Amino acid sequence: MVTKAENGAVVASSARLRGPWLWLAQALLAAIPVFGMAYAFNITSYFGYAMWGQQAALAVLGLGLSATFLLKPAGSAILSEDGPGRPPLYDILLAALAVALCAQTAIRYEWLVGIGYLGNGQEYYFNMTAAALTLLLVIEALRRLTGWAMVILVLAALSYALVADKMPGAFQGSAQQVDFFLGFLHLDTSGILGTPLAVVVSTVIAYVLLGNALFRLGGGQIFLDLPLAAMGRYRGGSAKASVLASSLFGSISGSAVANVATTGIVTIPLMQRTGYKGHQAGAIEAVGSTGGQLLPPIMGAAAFIMAEFLGIPYTEVALAALLPAILFYMALLVQIHLHAARNGHRPLSREERPDAGATFKKHWPYLVPIVMLMVLLFGYRWRPEQAAFASLIAVIAAAAFVREHSIRPRALYRVLQGTGRSLLDIIAITAAAGIIVGVLSTTGLSFSLGLSIAEAAGSILIVLLVIAAVTAIVFGMGMPTTAVYVLMATLIAPALVAAGVEPLAAHLFVLYFGVLSMITPPVCLASFTAASMAGAPFMRTGWSSLRFGLVAFIVPFIFVASPSLLLQGEGWMETAIAFSTAVIGFLMLAAAVEGYLFGVIGRALRALSLVGGLLLIIPENGRIVPLGFHTDKVGLALALIALTWAWWQSRADRSGAAGAVKARG
User: How far apart are alpha carbons 268 and 265 in whole angstroms?
Assistant: First the structure.
């Protein structure tokens, strides 16, 4: 679900390896998806051995940690290609230690669980040492791959677990003994080997493999060329094509940063050539790429973890996310259109646009795996990993058909390597997320803090939702989406459910704001990545991202107040009304933000559009405003007044301009 672009640091750092060390690192990377797929399809049972899920997770964890220590230097500097050709001795030792610890734990896992994790005598000290070292290796790999933000959070959580009984108020919990706590985090299903890492092994690996195969075997080009051909001829076409391409790429990759790096290298320069400033081009690319994590059929690792947390099929999560994702992109496209109209951004020239017919004729087989994936997931209700594997076979067949020759084993081996490289940060993040979940569950903080938040909000749902949104954005600053979601799903989502929010809506709400933290200053990873590619100021790009994505911040509040948008048991008429009024409301909000509706509009008309748009968006079910206040009717009336006013104003402006030209003539 992430592509090779996301782990740019890891890719660059591998330049220091040559010869046997490079081959070893590549073999470790390739082995990660192999182990994952072997567990997902229960391959070991054909040899008379049933593998526990925790054993498969330990195998993947050991391979991921070992590859990280070989490929990613301890410091920020990347060694040059003319270096010694091998990693430092301490990295070699760490890589060997990671494999040895995870291997021995996986082999003895059933016995270790039976003796209560640690045992007695010399076994006790050995197991406790192994648990402590594994914990330290996970934290160090996390630091190398993601930086200090999440490491500090993990260390704070571990420190809290030791002094929880001494904390004040809602933060008071049950303090943990060091030895028991180490064994628990090491081996329990609420620790490192918990749900986040388990879902990666059982499901996410299959989709990362599918995404890497699609892009590395040539299928990515059609997802870039077709949007450019379809949207490039219209006003602001480069920005609209960027949004469409980013949505398609992001739906497959599931990573905002990877999406920016993949599509932005083409779309950002195109936008700059058609009149967009650097910070605007970067912002549009960042917002469009961020929404990809919310768009089915593949929404990122967090969505698969959500399905596991809720105990529902992934297809139910994807279907629920469909209409909100469409609203997200429709609102963004409308705002981009109005911005382009106001600022006169030109379309792409014929030379700048790919030929749609030629692109489709050559690359159409790559669309077959995506169609197959959706049919198998939503039509035949296959398990997600089964549907992904069948689509993977279709990708290989499509690549062979397009290239008119068979795909060589070396190309497939590179796909496996790329998949393993893309998984490194996901493995470290989910293992670390398991540590945080373990702390929250053993100390009782998740219950007490969630209860305190619910009490602070009282019976006012909107206050609780705002608290949840702000918390998700703050936690998301500098942290990956998956980690933010796991933390929010443990801390905040139960409070939302207790307040009467549907469980699926509550989890999607916190996921949305965890994703939107990628474009929310002061720390917004997707915006910063786009800014570096556009050569624009980082903070200015971040604030522009917030402006272009402003309407998207309202979407989660809408589907919480109106669960019909999540296709949750409501009739089709209620869903159609809620969706239609939201679309019109977003049009009016975009007009208010951009100051353009048929023409440039003044403050009074912008204010009228803003009020009308908000009233259209707010559902008439009493969850946000009292029952009896007909928000849709009042909002629709204000919207019609604003549209009529803007149309007459633009007509008068055109007539005045024509009269002035005629008088001068």
Answer: 6
Stretch 424-451: mean pLDDT, rounded? 88
Which residue's structure tokens are 């942290």?
Answer: 479
Quickly state the pLDDT bin for 561 (edges 50, 70, 90): confident
Mean pLDDT rounded to a whole number for the chain: 86
C-beta separation of 146 from 428 below 8 A: yes
Confidence at residue 254, expressed as pLDDT on a 0 to 100 scale: 61
Q: Is 8 helix (H, G, I), strand (E, B) or coil?
A: helix
CA dist 14 → 22, 205, 217, 232, 240 (Å): 7, 22, 22, 38, 36
What is the domain partition of the chain in residue ranges?
571-665
3 state DSSP class of 596: strand
What tokens does 162 get?
Answer: 């030791």
In sequence order, the 6+-apart residues with CB closer than 8 A to the CB of 114 are: none
Q: And the tokens for 532?
A: 């570096």
CA 216, distance to chain mean position in Å, is: 21
Closest Cα partner for 309 from 430, 416, 476, 455?
430
Q: What are phi and psi of 466, to 5 degrees?
A: -65, -40
Confidence at residue 658, expressed as pLDDT on a 0 to 100 scale? 55
User: For the chain, what is the radius of gyration of the CA atoms?
Assistant: 26
Measured over the CA atoms of residue 337, residue 339, residue 342 and residue 344, the dihedral's sign is negative
Rounded Cα distance between 530 and 123, Å, is 52
Please name the residue that has the structure tokens 């567990």: 39
Least confident span in 40-49, 281-290, 351-360, 463-472: 40-49
* Dihedral sign from CA coordinates of 563, 566, 568, 569: positive
Q: Which residues contact 355 (CB under 8 A, 6 or more apart)?
A: 229
Our measurement of the distance from residue 148's CA atom to the centroid of its chain's CA atoms, rounded to an integer in Å, reads 20
pLDDT in tens, 586-612: 999 999 999 998 888 899 999 999 999
Give pLDDT, residue 352. 79
E strand residue ranges, 153-280: none
For residue 435, which phi and psi values (nearest 5 degrees)?
-60, -45
Q: Is the dihedral of CA 433, 434, 438, 439 positive or negative?
A: negative
Cβ of 215: how many Cβ atoms within 10 Å? Answer: 24
Q: Among candidates 9, 61, 36, 20, which has minimal Cα distance to 433?
A: 61
pLDDT of 166 > 70? The answer is yes
Question: 624 CB contacts (<8 Å, ≥6 apart)?
Answer: 461, 462, 557, 561, 618
Count of CA atoms in the C-beta half-sphere (13 A) of 126: 10
Per the CB < 8 A criterion, the answer to whether 430 and 472 are in contact is no
- Is residue 50 within 8 A of residue 212, CB to CB? The reply is no
Global pTM reads: 0.88
CA-to-CA dists, residue 161 to 95, 443, 444, 451, 581, angstroms:
29, 6, 10, 19, 48
Q: What angle do the packed helices 525-534 and 278-290 form, to 10 degrees? A: 140
The single residue listed with the structure tokens 């429709």 is 330
